[in-house]
């Protein structure tokens, strides 16, 4: 089974400046709680037992949020407050589940994943990009179901407007069924004319441990970063099977200002 989830959190969040000068984007509240807690809840409800958070010194507030409980304790000593008490219990529960690793230079998702190598225990693990919230349906649950069927790596995917392909990792597909397909190839942020389809990668991956070896082999790609997409590509070329899961839920992009504002509105509307 899949018991560990890794979450890259070292990105600078420049698209959300000036807020991200002081608040990590993953802690920005959406309908009363940090973006990151939606991701944690999605994982816990599918049986994830351990999280590996990849942070940087600049993002130390993420660690503080989940580990520093002094203020809670002080406050609760003075006052019985049921809301604060339940928040305190929740944070304590999360604290036990999280390990932190550091990526001090933003060298890409591939590099971030590699930092977790020594902590991954099982053959497969889940990776979630926290900018991508999926609501209404649990995307990780659908992916684990497909994983059980295919016993291979899985990537979440959705169709995007062709005019936007250069914002995403794009998949070349075969044997398309209603909710999934096999991935023939993948290209990170292609030009419209080079895009093999309009099925984009959305930030949920079930990856095999073998990916670590592949990441070590690849060279920096777009923007001088080590992209997980390039490691996936070279695994596909060497015969590893990957499937795309066309998820049912509603996708929210929390990584841009427009997307963040829209996410607040939609989560307020759909999640009670
Ligand atoms: C990352 C991935 C990309 C994927 C996207 C989904 O890009 O590299 O393949 O389509 O997440 O949000 P980023 O958002 O870091 O530019």
CATH superfamily: Spore Coat Polysaccharide Biosynthesis Protein SpsA, Chain A
Bound molecules: 1-O-phosphono-alpha-D-glucopyranose
The quaternary state of the protein chains shown equals: single chain
Low-confidence region ranges: none
Q: Strand sequence of the main sheet, in spatial order?
A: 5-4-1-6-11-8-12-10-9
Q: How would you sum up the global shape?
A: globular
**Strand content range:** 25-35%
Number of strands: 13
- Determine the CATH topology: Spore Coat Polysaccharide Biosynthesis Protein SpsA, Chain A
Largest sheet: 9 strands, mixed
Q: What is the total domain count?
A: 1
Helix content range: 25-40%
Helix-strand string: EEEHEHHHEHEEHEEEEHHEEH
Category by helix and strand content: alpha/beta
Mean pLDDT: 95
Provide the CATH top-level class. Alpha Beta
């Amino acid at each position: 089974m899949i018991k560990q989830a890794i979450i890259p959190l070292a990105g600078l969040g420049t698209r959300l400046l000036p807020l991200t000068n002081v608040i990590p984007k993953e802690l920005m509240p959406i309908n009363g709680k940090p973006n990151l807690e939606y991701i944690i809840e999605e994982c816990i409800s599918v049986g994830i037992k351990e999280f590996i958070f990849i942070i940087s010194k600049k993002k130390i507030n993420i660690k503080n949020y989940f580990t520093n409980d002094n203020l809670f304790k002080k406050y609760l000593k003075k006052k019985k407050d049921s809301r604060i008490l339940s928040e305190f219990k929740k944070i304590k529960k999360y604290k036990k589940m999280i390990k932190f690793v550091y990526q001090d230079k933003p060298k890409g998702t591939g590099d971030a994943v590699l930092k977790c190598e020594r902590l991954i225990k099982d053959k497969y693990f889940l990776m979630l990009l926290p900018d991508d919230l999926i609501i209404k349906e649990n995307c990780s649950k659908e992916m684990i179901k497909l994983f059980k069927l295919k016993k291979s790596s899985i990537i979440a995917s959705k169709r995007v407007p062709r005019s936007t392909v250069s914002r995403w990792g794009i998949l070349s597909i075969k044997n398309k069924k209603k909710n999934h397909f096999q991935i023939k190839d993948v290209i990170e942020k292609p030009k419209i004319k080079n895009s093999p389809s309009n099925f984009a990668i959305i930030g949920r991956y079930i990856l095999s441990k073998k990916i670590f070896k592949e990441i070590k082999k690849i060279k920096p790609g777009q923007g001088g970063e080590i992209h997980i997409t390039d490691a996936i590509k070279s695994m596909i070329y060497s015969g590893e099977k990957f499937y795309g899961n066309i998820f049912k839920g509603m996708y929210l992009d929390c990584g841009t200002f427009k997307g963040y504002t829209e996410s607040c509105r939609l989560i307020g509307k759909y999640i009670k």
